[in-house]
Amino acid sequence: MDWKIFGTAFVTLFLAELGDKTQLAVITMTASTESKISVFLGAAAALVVVTLIGVLVGGVLSEYIPTEWLQRIVAAAFIVIGVLMLLGKL
Predict the structure, then answer these.
(1) CA distance 64 to 4
(2) FRET pair for 62, CA 20 to 30 Å: which of 36, 43, 54, 56?
(3) What are the boundaries of each domain within the chain?
(4) How far apart are CA 15 and CA 17, in angstroms?
(5) What is the per-residue pLDDT for 21?
(6) Residue 14 to residue 51: CA distance in whole angstroms
(7) Is 73 helix (H, G, I), strand (E, B) or coil?
(8) What are the residue ranges in the chain where pLDDT is below 50?
């Protein structure tokens, strides 16, 4: 295992998720139920599955698209999503 990559992935994802709509949704769900462990396990499982999909898709795409272009495509997608959110379309 490459611990440097592990640490970078952990810190990056941890910081990206702080205050994210996912965390806010979990806070809301936790406040409205007595089964806090169910919310934790469901949210953790969802994050694991979404991350697995990202790793698999990223692995396949990186075989066909250079990393530099993949980063540009992802950056453009973030910009488009941000604009759509500002316009109330998402």
Answers:
(1) 26
(2) 43
(3) 3-86
(4) 5
(5) 83
(6) 13
(7) helix
(8) none
